[in-house]
Structure formats: structure tokens, C-alpha cells
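Hi team,

Filling in the usual template for the complex we talked about on Friday. All components are listed, including any nucleic acid strands or ligand strings, so the model treats them as one assembly.

SUBMITTER: L.P.
PURPOSE: interface mapping
COMPONENTS: two
RESIDUES: 553
SEQUENCES:
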Amino acid sequence: MSQSEQVVSLRDVSKTFERTGTSALEGIELEIGRREFISLIGPSGCGKSTLLRIVGDLIQPSSGDVVVNGKPAHQARLDRDYGIVFQDAVLYEWRTVAKNIGLPLEMGGWDRRRRQERVHEMLELVELTGFADHHPWQLSGGMQQRVSIARALSFSPALLLMDEPFGALDEMTRERLNAELLGIWAETGSTVIFVTHSIAEAVFLSTRVVVMSPRPGRISGVVEIDLPQPRTNELREDARFAELIRDVRRVLRRGGGLDEHEEPLPVEERV
Amino acid sequence: MASLVARRVGTFVAVLAALWGLWEAFKWFGEATEFRLGSFEVNDRTLPHLHDVFAELGEPSRRNGPTLISILDDAALFTAKEAAAGFALGATFGFLIAIVLVHSGLLQRSLLPYIVASQTVPILAIAPMVVVWVNPQLPDSLKGWGAVAVIAAYLTFFPVTINTLRGLQSADPRAIELMRSYAASRWRVLWKLRVPASMPYLFAALKISATASVVGAIIGELPASITEGLGGAILNFNQYYASAPTRLWATNLVAAALGIAFFLAVLAAEKVVVRRAPEHVA
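RESULT (copied from the run log):
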């Protein structure tokens, strides 16, 4: 992969929270290429959400280089190079579904007509046509999260950052949205960084699974997922799928990330 | 929908009837048992019949003069003008202070104690000074009642500042991160996120301020020597309380009705402006 193909490149990135002196991340090295789907997995407190926010320039690393789309992360944020999805949908409850999806477009200075067209396309993409004029509280949790994904993708960012986006949903909804997300990923051609607690979810979605270990957060291994594309739900019963899950578990255990007695999440990890 | 309205009206009438009944029952009981509390005793002077109070509204307040209700109507309209102007002034001022304060922790820490202190000074002590300071500055069309509006504003701004400040800070931290990810300026974070998020808080404050502005206007009329409003009417009928207690009671009813009208106006505006999940509307 040539240098220009890198969407994200992290060089020796460390983060220490000054107030508590907690070392959240240490010596993170990671290159993410165009159209990759990367999952960050690890136990609570391993700094995966922190790493995601560092890529998004929402918090600053204590040391190291973060390059996004060939420029410093700060510039990439100002250029609106990425969309972000949180565990909760974080919709603006005073805005309709359509206006929530159109919010980043408003910020980007799109005129009203282009905005409407684009919002309509996005509603089709996440299969919510007909809900444009609903308010968030009138939707189920899964639907709200689809709105939040549509909002993140509305301005076609090269990079999509997802912080446990399906963590609050029930298993059935989660599997359906996993499949939908893969469809959207194939269609839009964006690069995805996906934080999750679920090994199965990580294996099912990703081209590579980055396994992290806690205190300080480090990358303890990377598992290449060579499952065929496009992926369907039948794959979950495939022998290779089970084997890859075993591989990820093995790396997790090696990094000390699979013990049963986890310490509570440091407060600042959530900031 | 129609049945909902019918039920609400029904509840309202039932509560009103119950209060009426309570009043009359207390009066009857007090008179029958010659109830006394210090020098207070229940009779037609201390506690007139409610129907006498309402009947008084239809009587002329002096021989061959207009009925009491038409006098009080005019007075209420006059006071409403002062209170509405004061409310608008105070709400705007209070909102702007909150916007300044939310952007500076230093200003917040240094100014907030004085804003709180401003409300511990009794309005009766402030009002005469406001009249002396403000009145000479006003053009003729605002003279007198303009100063009263400023007094009403003084009572109005405080709840608005405190609540709006809280509301502006109520936005979800991730929603702010989201705005940062759109490279939104402070100004746009304010108008697209903080201000809309503050609306339920703002309206909670406006409901308090709406009635406070009416109280402020009535009280403000006294040092401003304004006789056209409800404050003037109260002062006037207070002098004749011994001979005609029902007039003062009737004036109180009209003043209460004005406060309620202000409150309902804010409620109606809230219904239009605040679009929230039902459980988030105060």
C-alpha cells in the first residue's frame, strides 16, 4: 500500500490524562488503508474510545503523530473529513429526522435544495423513507441509531468513526444493523473505524480486528479477517468464522484482556 | 380531543367550586363559633361572601359613576402594558446575560454573586430609586409607566438568567463533540445546539417571570405615584376598606386574573416553540 492510500496513520501515539496521571494509551502504531473496515476491540479501560477520539481530533494525544487523509488530524477535522457515530444516537430532539440528518450539511453550507435531495437519499440508504418528519422520540432505538448513521454519512466523509454504535441495542437489532452497515459500507466506499465490545461483531464486520490490552492501552495484536465479501448472516455459522473468533480470543487473553474481573472504567476514558 | 377539553374544563370548574365551598364553609364556621385569632375575627368585613365580591364588580364604585369592573378593566390593561414591557425587557436582558456568562467561567464566578445579591434587596427599597433615576431620562410617552416597566424587568430577569444558564449548559457533551466534528464555530454551537437545548429551561423561567412581572408592575406603581393601574386601585380601595371591603377583594381577583393570563400566554408560546419528547416538557 502506498503512502497516499493511507486514510489514517498513527505513529507512536500515547495519551496520559494529566489530572489523574493515568496512562490511557502507549506507543500505538497503526496504518489504515482506504476502504478498510477496522474494529478496535478490548476490555473496558483499554483506551479504544480514547484512540477513536484522538483520530477525530476531539482530544489531543500526549505524544506521537496522527495523520488523517494525509494531513494532521486537526486539519482533517476542520475539513470535515470524518463522520462520527456514538453509542447513543445523540439526535437533536427538537429537530425532525430529516433536519437531524441535514445538520452536518447545514454546517457545511449546502443550499436548501441540495440538502433536501441528499437527506432523501440518506433516508433511502438507511430505509427510513416516510419517517422524515418524525421527531427522534417517536422512533425505536434501532431506528434512532440508523438516523445517526445517516447523519454521519450525509456529507460523504472519507472516514467513519463509530464508538460502540450498536452497544445499546438488543442482539437481534444489532445483527440486522450489522448487515445493513456492511451494505452501506460497500455502497459508500468509506473507511470505517469501529469500536466494539463484541468479538463476534468485530469478526463479522471487519477486514482487520485490532486487539487492545488495558493499562496502559496497547495494541496486543491484529487479526486479518479473510472471510469473503459480501458477508451474509449465514457466515456466522461458518467454521472459518468460529476459527477467527478463537484467534481474536487468543490474542485478547494474551494481552490480559479476557480476565473475568475487570476493574471499573476510569472516569476520563469517557470524556 | 373534544372529550379531553371537556374533562379539563370539568376539572377546572370542580376545583373552583371546591375552593368556593371551602371559603364559604370557613366563613360560616368562623361566624357560628365566633372564632378569634388575636384581634382577627371572621365577619363580612374581614371575609366577605364571594358572591358579594363578584356582585361588587357590577356596581358603580361611586354614585352615577362607571361600574367597578370597567374601572378595574382599564386599570388591569394599564398594568398589563407595564408588566408586558417589563417582562420583555427583563427576559431579553436576562437571556443575554446568560449567553455572556456561559462563555466565560471567570465572568460567571465573578458576576453571579452580584446577580443573586440584586434579588435579595427588597423591590420596595429599589423601586423609588428606579423612579427617581429613570423617569427624567424617559420621553414623555414613556414617563411614569416606563419606570414601572423597569421595576418589573428587575424582577423578571433573574429567573431567566439562572435557568437559561443552566439550559445552555445542558447540551449533551457528545452533541458538542459532534458539532466540533463539523468544525462548527462557537457561535453556531450556541445557536444550533445550546440555545435550542435551553428552551425547556427558558420557558420554566418565563412562567415564573410572567407572574413576577405583574407583581413588579403593581408594586412599582406605588412609588411612581401612578394611579391609573391596579397598584393605584389597590391603594385607593385600601383606604375605603372599612366601608367597602368587597372592592379591594374584587381588585385582588382582577390582579390574580391578570397574573394567570400572563402565565397562560407563556404556556401557549411554549406549546408552539418547544418541540420535545413529552416527558421533557416541564
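MY TAKE: The two ends of chain A are 34 Å apart (CA to CA). The first helix of chain A runs from residue 48 to 55.

Thanks, L.
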